[in-house]
Write a structure and sequence with these properties.
The protein has 408 residues and is mainly alpha-helical. The chain has a single domain (2-192, 206-406), classed as MFS general substrate transporter like domains (Growth Hormone, Chain: A), CATH 1.20.1250.20. Helix content is 83%, strand content 0%. It contains 16 helices and no strands. The longest helix is centred in the first third of the chain and has 32 residues, at 12-43.
Length: 408
């Protein structure tokens, strides 16, 4: 079982990529936990957190179609290095502001905006680089290892982030996150990747070329029904999952379950445990069957888990809900990664990855604000019930689509 899972570590390129991202994800897991708690501490408003998340997403929505073309034209590794250097500098500034007692909501707004710009470049570059070096014979295990490494650090990161937030020592969290991006840069420098030698020289960039290359990405997506449908449905599903984890859940724990801030970090660690278990299991398999049905079953089950948490409203239900969500989200994501890497050509992977993220994130800014506003108007429990019902509808009803059922 573990022999197949560890096979990718024989390749230096994959090892360097996984170690670098393991480092940066550790810092990200601390910051992801701290960010909503910092905003609540400064403003005491759910709407402010929705605004922060929207500011982070809006640049991605507008820039992703452009950055996908950039990723397919230039070195994906170098674009990732540039992104990490910018994030290192940004977090270093926040560390200094926090140490000097000058941290305020406007600094967080600036951080969210710049992060959105950088993410729009980094994410398609990272996805394309993985597709480039994760070859078919080790694809499942490499994707599983990538997910395990991401989730493993979040077992510790959220707990540390929760402690930092509870003690109001935000500067330490910012500083650690900054250093992890520096570590990621050092790992990326060890990777040597060569693009197709016979590739034609790219035409000079212009508005006409931009339109043509963007159409090429759309044509690539339209070749595959599962990819096309799931990008569309994912635009709505991402609103629910992201708003639940980033907005609804911390408020629900604090105001309904009456738990202190650091419990949010502990609870999210159980999500990681479920994710690691599923990734370990899938990493030992050469392929995944019934991918269409399984993906949409995961959507429906996530809605059921949220409903279960609302029904029982206790710590045990919280832990079970998040652990099962970790299992289902990881299954869903690993199916998606392997399907994209199998179906999409290397030449167009950056464009398709960007359009995938564009489709998935398009409605997030409106969704975050809507969830924050709805929570304040009708209550957090009622908002979570709506999230649950929509997830079950998207998941279980789409299974009746023949194109989804036929995708194996």
């Amino acid at each position: 079982m573990f022999k197949n899972l560890l096979e990718p570590f024989k390749y230096k390129q994959i090892s360097a990529l996984l170690i670098g991202q393991l480092t940066s994800k550790f810092g990200d897991s601390i910051m992801k936990l701290m960010l909503p708690l910092i905003v609540y501490s400064i403003t005491g408003s759910l709407l402010s957190m929705g605004l922060i998340m929207s500011i982070m997403i809006v640049p991605e929505v507008f820039l992703l179609p452009v950055t996908g073309i950039i990723v397919d034209r230039y070195s994906r590794k170098n674009l990732m290095i540039l992104s990490d250097v910018i994030r290192f500098l940004l977090l270093s500034i926040l560390t200094i502001l926090s140490l000097c007692g000058l941290l305020n909501i406007y600094a967080i707004y600036f951080y969210a905006f710049v992060s959105g710009i950088v993410n729009s470049l980094f994410e398609p570059a990272y996805s394309a680089l993985k597709a480039q070096i994760f070859k078919e014979d080790i694809r499942n295990s490499a994707n599983a290892l990538s997910e395990i490494s991401n989730q493993f650090v979040t077992l510790l990161g959220p707990v540390i982030g929760g402690i930092f937030a509870s003690l109001h020592i935000y500067s330490l969290g910012f500083g650690i996150d900054a250093l992890t991006f520096l570590g990621s840069v050092l790992s990326l420098l060890c990777i040597k990747v060569y693009r197709e030698a016979e590739k034609e020289k790219e035409p000079k960039f212009s508005l006409h070329v931009f339109g043509a290359e963007l159409k090429e990405g759309y044509y690539e997506i339209n070749k595959h029904d599962f990819i096309k449908i799931t990008i569309f449905v994912g635009a709505f599903v991402n609103i629910i999952i992201s708003s639940f984890v980033n907005i609804s859940l911390p408020y629900f724990m604090k105001n309904i379950l009456n738990l202190p801030d650091f419990y949010y970090g502990i609870a999210m660690s159980f999500f990681s445990i479920g994710s690691i278990c599923m990734a370990t299991f899938l990493g030992s398999r050469n392929q995944i069957n019934k991918r269409g049905i399984m993906t949409y079953m995961c959507f429906g089950l996530i809605g059921s888990f949220i409903a279960g948490l609302l029904l029982f409203k206790n710590v045990f239900a919280l832990i079970l809900c998040l652990m099962l969500m970790g299992v289902t989200v990881t299954l869903m994501m690993l199916i998606w990664y392997s399907s994209m890497q199998e179906l999409i050509s290397e030449k167009n992977f950056g464009k398709v990855s960007s359009l995938d993220n564009f489709g998935s994130f398009t409605l997030l800014p409106v969704g975050y604000i809507l969830v924050g506003y709805t929570s304040q108007k009708i209550g957090i429990s009622q908002t979570m019930l709506i999230e649950s019902l929509f997830m079950m509808a998207f998941g279980f009803l789409m299974i009746f689509n023949s194109k989804i059922r036929k995708f194996d």
